[in-house]
Design a protein that fits this description.
Layout lengths: L5 E6 L5 E6 L17 E3 L4 E10 L1 H10 L3 E2 L5 H9 L14 E14 L5 E6 L14 E2 L9 E9 L2 H5 L4 E5 L5 E8 L2 E2 L5 E2 L4 E2 L8 E6 L2 E7 L11 E3 L7 E3 L3
Parallel strand pairs: 6-11, 8-10
Antiparallel strand pairs: 1-2, 3-4, 4-11, 5-11, 6-7, 6-9, 9-10, 12-13, 14-15, 15-16, 17-18
Length: 255
């Protein structure tokens, strides 16, 4: 919404002029944010994605993703994987592999069935939440393997250089689950309020945007059924400033 002040004059009792001021006339609003700050939105799956750089082992990474209502990322189609590979993840110098290569824990595990001349096994989805998830091809095996480990964890390797990323070049690694690595979380798109809080399905909230006087219902991760409050200007104040994050809250600027 944008501020619009409408003054109307009418004759009241005693021939005095009565002024009516309406602030924040409701305007049509487009909501473009469907993910919390720091997350990337993909329309194809209505999901949000975020890389965490703190360097955790696989099991700790699982718990971190769960704390933000998500899980380690799995992929339903090649298009989703290409979206992930093409993103700029705001990666810092802090990294656990070569600077031109980035590896992330993702939501697959490699189960070893035969340790003879080559490690034979198969990929599984770590958490049986998705019914339509593709499985990676044969992996590259990590260097920090133990003879006792029968389960290895998946790392997706992408490249730092934009030309390589946009061509979709990548590799799959089966790594010791206790190695520390960055990791990729995935969660459903969600409603985010004006103060960057996550809003649960069915709850009222004020969406991020320019109008703190909107109240909407969170439905399927988007604000719907929105209503707007109209604010009276502050009484006895000629110059004032409207609070951008609080509805009908003003600061009087008069001397």
């Amino acid at each position: 919404g944008k501020e619009n002040v409408d003054s109307r004059h009418s004759r009241g009792r005693g021939a005095e002029t009565t002024r009516f001021h309406t602030v924040n006339v409701a305007q049509p609003v487009r909501f473009s944010r469907k993910c919390p700050t720091g997350w990337h939105h993909y329309e194809g799956t209505a999901s949000c994605y975020r890389v965490y750089l703190n360097g955790e082992n696989y099991w700790d990474a699982v718990q971190t993703c769960q704390r933000v209502n998500g899980s380690l990322a799995t992929f339903t189609a090649d298009q989703e994987l290409r979206f992930i590979l093409a993103q700029e993840w705001d990666l810092e110098e802090k990294t656990f592999v070569r600077k031109d290569q980035r590896r992330f824990w993702v939501g697959y595990q490699y189960v070893i069935t035969n340790r003879n001349h080559s490690l034979e096994g198969h990929w599984e989805v770590a958490y049986k939440g998705s019914s339509e998830v593709f499985l990676p091809p044969d992996p590259i095996f990590g260097t920090a393997m133990s003879e006792k480990e029968n389960v290895l964890c998946a790392q997706l390797q992408c490249f730092h250089f934009p030309t390589l990323r946009h061509h979709g070049l990548h590799s799959w690694y089966a790594e010791n689950c206790y190695e520390k690595s960055s990791f990729l979380c995935k969660r459903s798109q969600t409603c985010v309020d004006i103060k960057d809080n996550i809003v649960d399905e069915g709850y009222y909230f004020t969406p991020k945007g320019n109008d703190p006087c909107l109240s909407c219902t969170c439905h399927n991760g988007e604000p719907e059924m929105c209503v707007a409050a109209l604010c009276e200007r502050p009484q006895g104040c000629q110059q004032y400033r409207k609070d951008p994050k609080e509805c009908c809250k003003f600061t009087c600027l008069d001397p």
